[in-house]
Amino acid sequence: MKTEEITDGDLTLAIIIRDADWKGGGNILSFVSSKEDYQQVGTWEYSKGQKLAPHIHSIQPRQVLRTQEVIFIKDGQVRADIYTEKKEFLKSVNLRKGDTIILLNGGHGYEILEDNTKVLEVKNGPYPGAERDRERI
């Protein structure tokens, strides 16, 4: 699957999966985040009848140092503003219906560009609350 990366030097700030970049044809499980990221994000593409073995994830000790977000645009349009680790504005990207952005490092802000925009947000937890989790830019 084709993805777009937003980087600052060697640091990946975000990965974008555009709706149009989903390809057909094949039984594919593909992770776009690295195994070191706090948020593990992959895409599935399987044919009808494919079965995935039932499983449970074992308890593993983890140390989570940063909240990372995944935003999926179900409907509408959002502008995501991307900032470096030094809180400097880097670039804006428009996200449309079916697009996903994985925010790994740096900062971000959003502007909703269409009425009735619907967004699914996923982030790692536990969540300590906005006062402890965020530093405003």
Structure commentary:
- It is a single chain.
- This protein has 137 residues and is mainly β.
- It has one domain.
- Helix content is 3%, strand content 42%.
- A five-stranded antiparallel β-sheet has the order 1-2-8-5-10, with no helix packed on it. Strands 7-6-9 form a three-stranded antiparallel β-sheet, with no helix packed on it. A two-stranded antiparallel ribbon has the order 3-4.
- The chain is globular, with a radius of gyration of 16 Å.
- The protein starts with a strand and ends with a helix.
Quick structural summary:
This protein is 3% helix and 42% strand. The protein has one helix and ten strands.
Secondary-structure topology with pairs:
Blueprint: E1 4-8, E2 11-17, E3 28-31, E4 42-45, E5 69-75, E6 77-83, E7 89-96, E8 100-103, E9 107-112, E10 118-123, H1 130-133
Antiparallel strand pairs: 1-2, 2-8, 3-4, 5-8, 5-10, 6-7, 6-9
Beta fraction of the residues?
A: 35-45%
Quaternary class: single chain
From the N-terminal CA to the C-terminal CA, the straight-line distance is: 33 Å
Q: Outline the biggest β-sheet.
A: 5 strands, antiparallel
Class from secondary-structure proportions? mainly beta
Shape: globular
